[in-house]
Write a structure and sequence with these properties.
This protein is an alpha/beta fold. It has helices spanning 11-24, 41-47, 52-66, 89-99, 124-137, 146-166, 175-178, and strands at 2-6, 30-35, 73-81, 104-109, 181-182, 188-189. It is 45% helix and 16% strand. It has a four-stranded parallel beta sheet. The relative contact order is 0.11.
Amino acid sequence: YITIPTNGFLPKKTADIFQRIFSESPDTFFRIGISLDGWEEEHDRIRRHPGGFGKTLETAGLLRELKKKSSNFFTEANIVFSRDTQDTIDDLVTRIEETELFDSIAVLYIRGNPEDPELMQPDLEKYRRINRRILDTFTVRRHPSARVLEALTQMVVETVITAEETGRPCFKCYAADRLAVLNARGELYPCE
């Protein structure tokens, strides 16, 4: 099981690479996470890439076509939940649903050290609400362990909320034992 994130800015190249990967690895299941943080100009502003929104949707469309040939992957719209996106996220989720390009939507709570610290500490109740909506709407039927994936997603959301409310980690991190992250430069890390 491999997750591959992409900003979707290179539609044809991305589709060609994934077509090869899917056919060469039929026993591996892939989650393709496509970053989408706003609609049209908002996405381009947040990602600082004019024209990026159109390329991102084009990539999602090309991957949808690949589903006719390959059943070992699903696509997910990945949205970063921050102070910048929290008030437009309901509309964004509705628009993403209307495109019918994605099998799932993941709303990822902002983490790390963004350039603008004001983006941190968004409204936890809005985060909880949007994730409940997504869980009620989307089921990842293409994934062989869909129910387990949905339960894990809900657990992660609740754990993130608890960690933010208490200011403490809620579990021991096993990332170094359970997964590996390969970045775009080919460097390997135990976590993001």
